[in-house]
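User: Here's a structure from my thesis project, written as structure tokens. My advisor, Dr. K., wants to see whether a designed sequence matches the one we expressed. Can you design one independently, without my sequence as a hint?
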């Protein structure tokens, strides 16, 4: 069965200024190559050829840069006033098409770099939804932040299932692993994901954010609440998030 990929790349990346003054965040260069090139190279190594991307900030520049490597382009025109979940559903057509074609979808943030072996492990997963989480996250966070706990989010796993994600941790005990922004949804589960999104209360706050600014972890929390089927794919390092200038100096 073929698997498709959807990359979320709408944000400005203000903490990477001035590097994002002229290009979108995913085109910032790490070790000589654009961040997005690492993602696409991993996808190519795994023979994933059907790739969609949702842009926003500097969309036309991104589209021109990737015109020969990406098959579907979508735009979040409200990237300045929305968050990751809204960006995801700007590609609703791609998600619906994936169900009709009976093809699973890997969803990747555009500001992360990961080794191909991680993507291969995710491709091999057969659950309705698998989320990659790093058990050795603290080592990376210590390189990125003076106080790792101040930036990290809670993540709790029970019998292989994620039962909590994205909360403000009170201690390191609340963090069994760290969410990295890479997960896979099976084609058979996609209609339920779409239905869940459509039925969410748009007037409600989700982890303190309004509907259009909902974090992805908040949406995953809703999936956990309704289906209790979010499986953790545990890894140990092999990836890097690039969210600030300092991250560009880190080896992974």
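Assistant: Designed independently from the structure alone:
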């Amino acid at each position: 069965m073929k698997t498709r990929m959807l990359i979320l790349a709408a944000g400005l990346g203000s903490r990477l200024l001035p590097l994002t003054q002229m290009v979108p965040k995913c085109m910032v260069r790490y070790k000589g190559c654009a961040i997005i090139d690492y993602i696409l190279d991993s996808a190519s190594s795994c023979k994933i050829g059907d790739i969609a991307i949702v842009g926003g900030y500097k969309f036309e520049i991104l589209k021109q840069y990737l015109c020969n490597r990406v098959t579907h382009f979508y735009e979040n025109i409200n990237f300045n006033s929305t968050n990751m979940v809204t960006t995801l559903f700007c590609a609703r057509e791609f998600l619906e098409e994936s169900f009709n074609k009976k093809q699973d979808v890997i969803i990747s943030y555009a500001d992360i770099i990961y080794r191909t072996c991680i993507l291969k492990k995710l491709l091999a997963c057969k659950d309705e939804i698998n989320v990659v989480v790093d058990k050795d996250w603290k080592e990376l966070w210590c390189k990125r932040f003076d106080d790792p706990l101040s930036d990290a989010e809670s993540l709790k796993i029970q019998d292989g299932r994620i039962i909590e994600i994205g909360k403000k941790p009170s201690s390191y005990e609340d963090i069994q692993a760290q969410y990295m922004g890479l997960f896979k949804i099976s084609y058979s589960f996609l209609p339920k994901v779409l239905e869940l999104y459509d039925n969410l209360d748009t007037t409600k706050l989700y982890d303190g954010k309004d509907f259009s600014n909902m974090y992805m972890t908040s949406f995953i929390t809703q999936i956990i609440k309704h289906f209790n089927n979010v499986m953790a794919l545990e890894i140990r390092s092999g990836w890097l998030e690039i969210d600030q200038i300092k991250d560009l100096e880190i080896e992974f």
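When you compare it with your expressed construct, this may help: The radius of gyration is 17 Å.
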